[in-house]
């Protein structure tokens, strides 16, 4: 038999037979707002004038994030927008805002190979094609940050906030964008910009800031951006990254923000032959392993599928019927169809089946084949699953041994896998954690 110990608790996104509509309902839309002012093109440290600039750091981070996203969550949509630019390119014709895109792609769309390739080389032609300038200066009424938030909000207007997560991520090393202004003009611009951000948040848009500290001073959130994104008290200090954060740390931080907290899988849990409940599985931690290589079409970004056919050795004809398998037994050839062989491997009609209970002292460390997976009842498809699950857990607590230790939510059950996992079905023993 073919054993697949990773199959039962593999993430739903790794399966071929996913429900596409469900994945689309959980997708994410992100607009990256990148500050293109001259300060972003200065060296990131004082040590060497040839050090990488903050603009270079951001380009590398976003490029890396797009490469990860195009495989793991290719149905998410991304837009890249620069503000404080000489040229303007947006539907609203607002000054100082440039929406970056490539041909045959919408401004907010799924990332493709061409976008990643051209965006990774944008530094070579940025000054000549787009340009950089100080957008908010003394004597000027142009508010490029306000314009950028307006453009980002317009890009995210499609899709419902009930089913789509929408985010605006701002990259800048300027902690006081209105520092060159004074008096009523400065007060008015700060007020209108913060109000624009709050209006976007009221519509369900999340605004995040990834600040970059300049060599001569640390980024001061209290000057402006704490009010923009809604931070108070200790949240301001906790939000700031450390001054010595390296490029790898920032890349990991961006990847961490891209990862969504969600359930691993929904399973049917058979308590008895007549009682079956629905549970969701959650994983606290998993080791990072290299993902499988997926070949994509460079234009459509769709996975390339490999197909194979069986050809008869005698006639050369293409065989359409399912192949027969055979096993020699007592000098006789016993034939199996593909469906019969699949039925032989199947040990249960449900994903999980409760086989019985053992005292806690019977469980050994080497019985656990992989990190713990926690299950939580769900009433979405099978109503009453929560009530049955709580009753089962209460009985296990009441009948448990004296050395049993309970922690966390009493509704969680840790699954200890120490039996053989056959295909997508498993023999399990459950115990309170």
What's the arrangement of secondary structure elements?
Blueprint (H helix, E strand, L loop, with lengths): L19 H6 L2 E8 L18 H19 L4 E7 L13 E4 L12 H8 L5 H4 L14 H12 L9 E8 L10 H20 L2 E7 L13 H5 L4 H6 L7 H12 L6 E6 L5 E8 L26 E2 L6 E2 L5 E5 L2 E5 L1 H8 L6 E3 L18 E5 L7 H15 L13 E4 L4 E2 L2 E8 L1
Parallel strand pairs: 1-2, 1-4, 4-5, 6-12, 12-16
Antiparallel strand pairs: 2-3, 6-7, 7-13, 8-9, 10-11, 13-14, 14-16, 15-16
Helix pairs in contact: 2-3, 2-9, 5-6
GO molecular function, one term: ATP binding
Subcellular location: Nucleus
InterPro entries: DNA_bd_Ku70/Ku80, Ku70, Ku_N, SPOC-like_C_dom_sf, vWFA_dom_sf
Task: Write a structural description.
Helix 2 (54-72) packs antiparallel against helix 3 (113-120) and helix 2 (54-72) runs parallel beside helix 9. Strand 15 (421-422) and strand 16 form a beta hairpin. Helices cover 27% and strands 19% of the residues. It starts with 19 loop residues before the first helix and ends with a strand. Residues 1-6, 12-22 and 401-433 have low confidence and may be disordered. The protein has 433 residues and is α/β, with parallel strands linked by helices. It has helices at 20-25, 54-72, 113-120, 126-129, 144-155, 183-202, 225-229, 234-239, 247-258, 338-345, 385-399; strands at residues 28-35, 77-83, 97-100, 165-172, 205-211, 265-270, 276-283, 310-311, 318-319, 325-329, 332-336, 352-354, 373-377, 413-416, 421-422, 425-432. The chain has 2 domains: 27-258, Rossmann fold, CATH 3.40.50; 265-286 and 309-432, Beta Barrel (Ku70, Chain: A, Domain 2), CATH 2.40.290. This is Ku domain-containing protein.
């Amino acid at each position: 038999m073919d054993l697949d110990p990773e199959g039962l608790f593999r993430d739903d996104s790794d399966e071929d037979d996913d429900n596409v509509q469900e994945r689309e309902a959980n997708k994410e839309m992100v607009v990256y707002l990148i500050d293109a002012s001259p300060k972003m093109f200065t060296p990131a440290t004082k040590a060497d004038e040839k050090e990488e600039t903050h603009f270079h750091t951001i380009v590398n981070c976003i490029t890396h994030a797009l490469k990860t996203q195009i495989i793991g969550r290719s149905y998410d949509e991304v837009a890249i927008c620069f503000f404080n630019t000489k040229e303007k390119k947006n539907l609203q014709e607002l000054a100082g805002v440039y929406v970056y895109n490539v041909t045959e792609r919408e401004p907010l769309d799924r990332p493709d190979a061409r976008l990643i390739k051209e965006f990774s080389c944008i530094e070579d032609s940025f000054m000549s094609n787009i340009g950089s300038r100080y957008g908010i200066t003394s004597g000027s009424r142009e508010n490029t940050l306000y314009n950028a938030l307006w453009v980002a909000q317009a890009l995210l207007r499609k899709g419902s906030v009930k089913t789509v997560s929408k985010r605006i991520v701002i990259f800048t090393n300027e902690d006081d964008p209105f520092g060159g202004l004074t008096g009523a003009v400065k007060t008015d611009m700060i007020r209108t910009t913060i109000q624009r951000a709050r209006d976007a948040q009221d519509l369900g848009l999340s605004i995040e800031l990834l600040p970059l500290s300049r060599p001569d001073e640390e980024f001061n959130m209290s000057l402006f951006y704490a009010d923009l994104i809604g931070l108070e008290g200790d949240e301001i200090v906790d939000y700031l990254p450390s001054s010595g954060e390296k490029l790898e740390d920032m890349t990991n931080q961006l990847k961490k923000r891209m990862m969504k907290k969600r359930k691993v899988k929904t399973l049917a849990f058979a308590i008895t032959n007549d009682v079956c409940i629905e549970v969701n599985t959650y994983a606290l931690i998993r080791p990072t392993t290299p993902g499988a290589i997926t070949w994509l079409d460079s234009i459509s970004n769709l996975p390339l599928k490999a197909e194979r056919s069986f050809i008869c050795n005698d006639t050369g004809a293409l065989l359409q019927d399912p192949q027969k398998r055979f096993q020699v037994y007592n000098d006789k050839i016993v034939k199996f169809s593909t469906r019969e062989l699949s039925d032989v491997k199947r040990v249960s009609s449900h994903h999980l089946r409760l086989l019985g209970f053992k005292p806690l002292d019977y469980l050994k460390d080497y019985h656990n084949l992989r990190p713990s997976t926690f299950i939580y009842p769900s009433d979405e498809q099978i109503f009453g699953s929560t009530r049955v699950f709580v009753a089962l857990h209460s009985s296990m607590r009441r009948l448990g041994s004296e050395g049993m230790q309970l922690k966390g939510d009493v509704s969680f059950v840790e699954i200890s896998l120490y039996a053989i996992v056959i295909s997508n079905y498993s023999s399990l023993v459950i115990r309170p954690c």
